[in-house]
Amino acid sequence: MIPIVSFQNVSLSYHSIGGETKAVSDLSFSVAPGEFFSIVGPSGCGKSSILSMMAGLFPPSSGSVFLNGNFGYMLQKDHLLEWRTIRSNALLGLEIQGKSTVENRAYVEQLLDQYGLKDFKDHFPSQLSGGMRQRVALIRTLAIRPDVLLLDEPFSALDYQTRLSVGDEIGTILRKEGKTAILVTHDISEAISLSDRVMVLTGRPARLKKIHTITLSVEEKTPMKAREAPEFREYFNTIWKELNVHVA
Fold first, then answer.
1. Helix (H, G, I), strand (E, B) or coil at 226
2. pLDDT number for residue 58
3. Distant-in-sequence, close-in-space partners of 150: CB < 8 Å, separation ≥ 6
4. How far apart are CA 232 and CA 160, in angstroms?
């Protein structure tokens, strides 16, 4: 199977008046179509820089990045426009790309109905909970029919209980829609519960430490059910130790 994303010996450096800062060093990995792939690493190690290269925001300093398909980006904040209704916020990406066709608008209506926002289409963002706002942001991203969703800590602004609930909802939606997803997160539990594989990075500059294939003995792998699996704690402890190997 041809990977939908492939990094081969990728390095990235930022240049400023103060000199060169190396963000990523000799990184190689690939992501298969339909896979949920998470990236964890110490704070500031370069995780978001990896997503930025996937999104084509800037090229690597060396090495090769191969991308197959179109990408949607979901950020930490929902960035909903407060003066637009939920429906018009969900349509925004299509309008920007000049793709607001009858077919695509009908698809957005279907997504809003299917994922619990049927009765809120004419509401404004300030009338919705944080979790519902993130659902709207996801639908806005899905509306452009991306092959890959890049998720840059999309739940981090939510309180813990809402974060668990929304993570479960969004993880389930993405699997149902058959999307490839690449998640950057600081939350080890979140990564394990959502992912098929988890890539662990070193501190800056980011290098590959290990990639874990997540196999959990649950009948239905939803994020909430995954946390109940007996293997969950073992994965958590292993990844935690890898991230904290420098701690005495």
1. helix
2. 85
3. 51, 54, 55, 71, 72, 73, 74, 182
4. 19
